[in-house]
Design brief:
Radius of gyration: 32 Å
Number of strands: 15
């Protein structure tokens, strides 16, 4: 490909009516302009400009070339301007991934507030519980829930808060079947499990109480990947469920469920933001990160137990 600077130089000489005027306008030495255009004519094998001591005229080939050069220069300038616009204020598309629960319960209610304040920003939200590859899948921001925060080269991680799964079921269930006194009693009761808990044809819950741990194998009565199905199963007395605290905080306050073995819980997950290193970060991405760092922790605190 030809050097785009030569196209810019040639178009400037024609537009401003000579080498001297072009040199003053674009800030390039006249002798350099002359050398570059002479080299351009040599590569093209045609004369683009007729030069005399008093005047400069554009040849027929030069006029054709000039018309295309102007379009190229204007297109390049438009490309620079489009990026400059993005850097002036929050604007453009931001791609965000989030765990399903957080997307449904938190982001669905908090993102509209950000978008009202930043009307030029569009947001794409991928609600998924898998860990997306931020770089390869071209996400600007990813919210993750993992037991530990991984140190990944080229990525920044910011802590948002914590979440753990707790055991709950309806009072009617407990009145009818009694209460387990310790984790080893759980297999005697009907349970509601996640598809992620399935293990060798049954299910396994890994519970902790301080430094103590218990690995309980179950034969659940209801299994679902959907949190709402599992919560409803617990509220309707289908069985004891192990659910995130942010899911059961409201039903717990409304006495729709009660905690079972309250000193025991599932593994704690750390919720955190992950994004590429901030060098060259657009205002839209930076402003959304700042917004999430305020509102997601507030939501987690409000819905913790």
């Amino acid at each position: 490909m030809e050097d785009l600077n030569d196209i810019y130089f040639f178009a400037s000489v024609v537009q401003y009516g000579g080498f001297s005027a072009a040199a003053r306008t674009i800030g390039v030495e006249k002798t350099r302009l002359s050398r570059r255009i002479a080299a351009l004519e040599k590569r093209l094998g045609v004369r683009l400009l007729q030069r005399t001591t008093r005047a400069l005229a554009v040849t027929e080939a030069g006029q054709r070339f000039f018309e295309r050069c102007v379009a190229t220069v204007e297109g390049a300038q438009a490309a620079y301007d489009s990026v400059a616009e993005l850097r002036r204020e929050p604007a453009g598309l931001v791609r965000l991934s989030s765990p399903v629960l957080l997307a449904q319960r938190c982001l669905a209610h908090t993102l509209p507030g950000y978008m009202k304040v930043n009307p030029k920003v569009s947001i794409f939200v991928e609600a998924t519980d898998r860990a997306v590859n931020v770089i390869e899948e071209r996400f600007d921001i990813s919210i993750r829930a993992t037991p530990v925060i991984e140190d990944v080269a080229g990525l920044v991680a910011k802590h948002l808060g914590n979440s753990q799964r707790v055991l709950v079921v309806s009072r009617k269930f407990l009145d009818r079947y009694g209460r387990p006194e310790n984790p080893v009693d759980l297999p005697k009761f009907d349970t509601v499990a996640s598809t992620d808990d399935i293990f060798d044809g049954g299910a396994r819950w890994n519970l902790a109480k301080g430094e103590q741990t218990a690995h309980i194998e179950l034969e659940p009565r209801l299994v679902s990947s959907d949190l709402r199905v599992r919560l409803q199963g617990a509220m309707d007395g289908i069985g004891i469920a192990l659910l995130p605290e942010q899911v059961i905080s409201a039903p717990l306050k409304g006495r729709l469920v009660e905690r079972v073995l309250p000193e025991w819980s599932g593994a704690r997950n750390i919720l955190h933001l992950v994004y590429p290193t901030p060098r060259g970060m657009l205002p839209s991405v930076r402003s959304l990160i700042d917004y999430l760092l305020i509102h997601v922790p507030a939501w987690l605190r409000e819905h913790s137990i």
